[in-house]
Amino acid sequence: AVALAALFLGAPGRGLRRGHIAAQTAVITLACLLVIHAAYFFHNRPPDPYDFSLQKIGLSAKTDEALQPALKVAHATLHRVLPSDFVSGIGWQLGHNQWGHPAGLLGEHRIMGWWYYFPVAFSLKTTLPFLLLALAATAWSGWMFFRRGRESKYLAVIAPLAFFTGLVMLSKINIGVRYFLPAYMFLFIMSGALLDWLLREFRPRRASLAAVALILCWTAFEAARAYPDYMTYMNQLASSRPRWYYLSDSNVEWGDDIREMALYLKERGEKRVGAALLGGQVLARYGIEGTGIFVPPDETPEETRYVAIGASFLNGSTVPGGFDEQRRLSEAERVNYFDEYRHRTPEKVFGGSIYLYRMKQ
């Protein structure tokens, strides 16, 4: 929107017609609306009540009295132009960001996150060839921007990348590198441009060809090496400790390996397993009964031959804060609830996300 506004205002100086810029802006806007509505199957339910919508983003109908008329108009307009579930989801995330979310990073635990979380997560969950290429391409794009008289095509990828990276670093929801995914497209564009420049302009030519071939082959090798555990993938920078030490939540676990684990148990005649997993309810689809092992300290979990613990539970970030209003855990008790399993040797690890322990013969 900022880029289009700048183009519209500066059109005469660039030999452009403002009518053309306005028409292209309209086409882009309609395309965005079409994609969003298509994602919701062109269904739009009645909007949430105004007061409820404010509460979700941490406001109330009694705050900012002067803004109430504008907020009410914005609420009504957004729910008419966009699907209500889309608007509601954004509102929920705004509120979520104010409350924070339990997360783990490099052995630490916080609810309100770290400003450097996403740079670290990106560095660990991106293949080394692309990580190196993306850093080089960002520096090269900046260099080309100043070298070529501040040519706007470089600014068109540098500015949104810098803006979004800065924005996401303010986020208190540090639970998945997926929140940084919108930045990847700018890194892809800059990386492709750098490789193209190496092939066309860098000398000696054989060296540039070798560098491009090395990057592409290394990337393909890493993709093959990661198969089929793409979701829990971490590069060689995270090789000295278990993955759950570095990151948590959907970075390391989301139930992807439950089927493989269930088949492993059935091969051994097991139909029950003590479980603390994200998505553990899926076990029943594969004929395995999951029994709870998260119980109050004065109770003993039901005895099973095997216990399966997800990486995020080993990390401690997804362990609930208590059992009811009367029985709450301190933060140290919560994150270390499954600490004894961190020191056990699992019988098998599925995809780096589920750790299976044999409790008895």
Structure commentary:
It is a single chain. Helices cover 51% and strands 8% of the residues. It has 15 helices and 7 strands. It has a 5-stranded mixed sheet. A two-stranded antiparallel sheet has the order 1-2. A hairpin with a 2-residue loop joins strand 1 and strand 2. Helix 3 packs parallel to helix 5 and helix 7 packs across helix 10. The longest helix has 22 residues. The termini are far apart. The model has no long low-confidence stretch (mean pLDDT 90).
Helix run count: 15
Strand order of the largest sheet: 4-3-5-7-6
Q: What is the count of β-strands?
A: 7
Helix/strand structural class: alpha/beta
Low-confidence stretches: none
Secondary-structure element order, N to C: HHHHHEEHHHHHHHEEEHHHEE
What's the quick description here?
Helix content is 51%, strand content 8%. It is built from 15 helices and seven strands.
Write the layout of secondary structure elements.
Elements: H1 2-9, H2 18-39, H3 50-56, H4 68-81, H5 84-99, E1 103-105, E2 108-110, H6 117-125, H7 128-147, H8 152-168, H9 181-201, H10 205-226, H11 243-246, H12 258-267, E3 272-276, E4 289-292, E5 306-310, H13 311-315, H14 331-335, H15 339-342, E6 348-350, E7 354-358
Parallel strand pairs: 3-4, 3-5
Antiparallel strand pairs: 1-2, 5-7, 6-7
What labels would you give this structure?
361 residues, alpha/beta, five-stranded mixed beta sheet, two-stranded antiparallel ribbon, 15 helices, globular
